[in-house]
Amino acid sequence: MTAAKRKTRKTQPAKAAPAAGAKELGRYLREMLLIRRFEEKAGQMYGMGLVGGFCHLYIGQEAVVTGVVDAMDHEDTLITGYRCHGHMLACGADPRQVFAELAGRAPGVSKGKGGSMHLFAVDRNFYGGHAIVGAQVPIGVGIGFAHKYRGTKRVSVVFFGEGAANQGQVYEAFNMASLWQLPILFVIENNKYAMGTEIRRAKAGTELFKRGDPFGIPGEQVDGMDVLAVEAATGEAIARCRSGQGPRLLEMQTYRYRGHSMSDPAKYRSREEVSKMRAERDPIDQVRTRLIKGGHASEDELKVIDREIRETVNQAAEFAQESPEPDPSELTTDITRDATGA
Amino acid sequence: MVTQTVREALRDAMAEEMRADERVFLMGEEVAEYQGAYKVSQGLLDEFGPERVVDTPITEAGFTGIGVGAAFAGLRPIVEFMTFNFAMQAIDALVNSASKTFYMSGGALGCPIVFRGPNGAAARVGAQHSQCYASWYGHVPGLKVVAPFSAGDAKGLLKSAIRDSNPVVFLENELLYGQSFEVPDGADHLVPIGRANVLRAGSDVTIVAFSIMVGEALKAAEALAGEGINAEVIDLRTIRPLDAATLLESVAKTNRIVTAEEGWPYAGIGAEIAALVMERAFDELDAPVARVTGADVPMPYAANLEALAKPDAERIAAAAKRVCYRD
To answer: ipTM above 0.90?
Structure first.
């Protein structure tokens, strides 16, 4: 493949979100609430011992994956790191199977063999949760390589955190994605903290949307707490990727309310900082306010939606609790497959 | 049969499989316009074009991850490492991504990919360019690991590796690239992964080796024959899955076994075979298993020291005599 010459668009800072209709807002509300309630329940179940190991919650970041997936075509693919519960739900995976996987139970999406950090929904074009920081970035570029190799118009959407944005392989992947003009949308979920390290303590240059500039990858900073802004920026970027203009990068400015994982008390930041973010920027509250102020829904109607979603999540947790652990024979299956792939 | 070098046999294997399956492509440093750092991909760019013979920048972690992603998405990449020493930059993609994802996804996402290139010591290239990775990759469930000696096996095994739906680490050897062998004609020649080959039948001692050490083992057997010791030589061909049946059958016959490898002794392939034989053929043994390995040192540059660090036919023969109590 040869490098093509093209004009690079100037990297853009965040801009204001567009308006949206009642139907759209209602959908966003439901999708984000599902992730929020699911994660709250996962945290609760972790405390009770149903979920083991590491468990990285997505609470606070719901607008990012919701807006991005909404802007994707159904044939486009996505991949992310270990904070992947929200991505599974946004792709439409069955919450019961996702919860069963967190619990390490037989009906889990990975038969209980992957766990919280290794969720996959290949039939929904989600290539998974990968738990080595940054490793999913070249893999996601490889998926985009395959899209182009086959002559399709599909776009590969590659999520990673701002912590991963320091990994060398990310820039190796940027280089080849641009050199070969691959249809890749890089989405940096900048939640400000790489585990306990605040972004300014780990980065020489915190304007992550500019990190594609040396490779000719135009970037844009997006208010990742506003699902409408996320959807609009993603739609525009994906359209450019799809039209053969090479990769694009979006830096989603977001925030996680909980610790890095369940074992992190998050003492590296103040309670005030978290409460302020929750009070002023919460992605779900923003949509609720829009629905009510626009006269699209009443408080009571929103309560009904919340109740329905809580019910779905409770059922998923119950399903996980009641499901059996994998059969011992599963220990030695799925290591290799028949040479032919059968 | 045709006479071919290992280099030509590998090239033909790739060309035949690329003709047969459009999902197969080759990527790596200098594979296209330069025709391969060791000329293994000679002519492939002309036949298949730059979309399927892809020159990469010098960026192993990046292009290996890209290969793995392309395999997840259903293509059948052949990733060439200029040498396996450089794959250390990318070992995470092999071990954590290529080998484990099928298991972690409960069988939903497989990785049909071949990682190939020269492995082990060449000549006078020093410690960072002279290392055998058979034991490193052989350690990993989910990977298949192949290390052929002859051109015929190189071709037949590479074709099988490309057709295989699992990640396969294909260890070549620079010093073997120019050696000629008889190779079966035609595009149907396949050698199954996971089967060792008894190259020379014998009754007194089994010598098991892989890759370039097979040549040394054959020379050792020749020398031993002159001293009245009838050695059986097994070319392991595949490191993982190990062909235990062929090894155990041979030990049941000879009651003695010598392993030969270029790699270090500690947790090496010889150690694995010694454990296998001890666990499953203890009562057959008339002598302890003997290991012939590379010296337990980083490879030195000086010609005399390098020769001391590398195993050869003489040391294999000496080990065989020792287990026959003939030294």
So the answer is: yes
